[in-house]
Every structure is written in C-alpha cells, then in structure tokens.
C-alpha cells in the first residue's frame, strides 16, 4: 500500500478513517468519500482493508465503489474534465464537443490520457442548462463551450 503525505502507511490511515466512522450508521459511503478525498482514488488494497475492517465482503465494497461515478479506482489526471451530456447540452452541441475532445486527447470519455494530464468524464446534468454545452474542469463550472474555448481554459491553467 502507498505511503501518505505524513509518511505513514496508507493502510493505517484507511483504518483511522474507518475508526472515525465506525459508530456511524451506513458508514461505508462517508468512509469512501473521506478516502477518495485524501488519496484521490480507492484501489483494490483499500477495498480489501475496508472489507476486513467493516466485516463485509470485498464484493460489497467494490460494488459501491463501481456503482457511484464519484468514486474512482485509479488516480485521475492532473485535470478532470466532466462533460455534460444531458438533453439541454446535447441540443446545443455537446455530442460534437465530446467527439472533438476525445479526438484531441486520444482517449474516450471515462479514461485518462497516457501522460496523466487529463481525465475525461461524462455527467448527465451540471445544472447549467441555459449555458450549454457545459463542463466542469476540476470542479469549476463553465458554459457555452466549444473545443477551442475548452482547450484555452485548460492551457490557461483553469484546470
């Protein structure tokens, strides 16, 4: 298992997160959110530790991690671009934007570029319907995007 920023083995840190939530009802989701926030992803070794600590199967933990799109099993790229594919954005060119961005980065939505610079994700509404096509770049919302503006935002360091 990896080492965290304080130099402690990550397994110990995972157990500490579990301990902080042990008395909580339905503790798995808050635990996963805390681990994701701290480590950036939830790898298979973490799944095994959580299963042991919570006395549930690895399949149960993995099922939750794989079901919710906010959890990832591998580290994200330096920039995470979440492209809206809901109807309002589709009506104003979101699908064209998705196709262009996939071509520019050479990876389909749901993957990270080989150099780790960008992770492309899809969402089905960012609540920015009047300003579509919309996307989130590292949690910040942008509207009225086309390929050029999206690439400019990434180049300008908005990522």
UniProtKB/TrEMBL annotation:
Binds 1 [2Fe-2S] cluster. Pfam families: 2Fe-2S_thioredx (PF01257). InterPro entries: NADP_DH_HndA-like (IPR028431), NuoE-like (IPR002023), NuoE_N (IPR041921), Thioredoxin-like_sf (IPR036249). Belongs to the complex I 24 kDa subunit family. One of its GO terms (molecular function) is metal ion binding. It comes from Amycolatopsis cihanbeyliensis. [2Fe-2S] cluster binds at residues 84, 89, 125, 129. This is Formate dehydrogenase gamma subunit. Keywords: 2Fe-2S, Iron, Iron-sulfur, Metal-binding. Its cofactor is [2Fe-2S] cluster. The lineage of its organism: Bacteria, Bacillati, Actinomycetota, Actinomycetes, Pseudonocardiales. PROSITE patterns: COMPLEX1_24K. Gene3D superfamilies: Glutaredoxin (3.40.30.10), NADH-quinone oxidoreductase subunit E (1.10.10.1590).
């Amino acid at each position: 298992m990896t080492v965290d920023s304080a130099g402690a083995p990550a397994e110990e840190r995972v157990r500490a997160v579990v301990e902080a939530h042990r008395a909580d009802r339905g503790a798995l989701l808050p635990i996963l959110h805390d681990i994701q926030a701290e480590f950036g992803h939830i790898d298979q070794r973490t799944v095994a530790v959580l299963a042991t600590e919570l006395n549930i199967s690895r399949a149960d933990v993995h099922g939750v991690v794989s079901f919710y799109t906010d959890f990832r099993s591998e580290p994200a790229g330096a920039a995470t671009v979440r492209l809206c594919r809901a109807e309002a954005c589709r009506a104003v060119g979101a699908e064209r934007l998705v196709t262009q961005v996939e071509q520019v980065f050479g990876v389909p939505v749901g993957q990270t570029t080989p150099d780790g610079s960008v992770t492309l994700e899809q969402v089905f509404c960012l609540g920015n319907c009047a300003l579509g096509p919309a996307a989130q770049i590292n949690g910040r919302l942008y509207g009225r995007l086309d390929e050029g503006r999206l690439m400019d935002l990434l180049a300008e360091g908005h990522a």
